[in-house]
Design a protein that fits this description.
The chain has seven helices and no strands. By secondary structure, it is mostly helical.
């Protein structure tokens, strides 16, 4: 094994299972991130086992957090590229976050309309028989909805 590979392997001491446990990212997901290039391919032992280090954990944490916030894979790829070169302007990162914020605002509006529609359906229920049920009536006939889109 050459000296550079030895050093690279020596600084990486975690198995994929330990990296998964410490990062809260499942093993198949780590493999997927490697496959699509979000996580660099790790060095391997003589027995062909992947080895991960602290930098890999930081990257997995970044990806996991970005996914929790709803960022798409391509946005995360761009954000990781920016993170890898911290001296550049952050306008692209700002634009990505702003676009995600717009999507969240749209989703909130849609969910608010949905909530209002469901509340209206439940309030209109007469608790009688199904043939008189407001919930069933509205679900059967979208024209009875208060909101045209939800």
């Amino acid at each position: 094994m050459n000296l550079i590979r030895q050093r690279n392997v020596a600084s990486r001491t975690m198995s994929i299972g330990e990296a998964a446990d410490r990062s809260s990212v499942k093993v198949p997901t780590i493999r997927y991130y490697e496959q699509i290039g979000l996580l660099p391919l790790p060095p391997r032992t003589e027995g062909n086992r992947r080895l991960y280090g602290e930098e890999d954990l930081r990257r997995l944490s970044f990806i996991r957090h970005a996914r929790e916030l709803g960022f798409e894979i391509e946005a995360i790829r761009t954000l990781l590229t920016l993170q890898d070169d911290p001296g550049q302007p952050c306008a692209t990162a700002d634009a990505i976050a702003q676009a995600r914020l717009v999507e969240v605002d749209q989703r909130i509006r849609s969910l608010t309309a949905l909530k209002a529609e469901l509340e209206h359906m439940v309030e209109g229920c007469r608790h009688g028989k199904v043939c008189e049920c407001r919930v069933i009536e509205v679900l059967a006939d979208h024209d009875q909805c208060e909101q045209p889109r939800h």
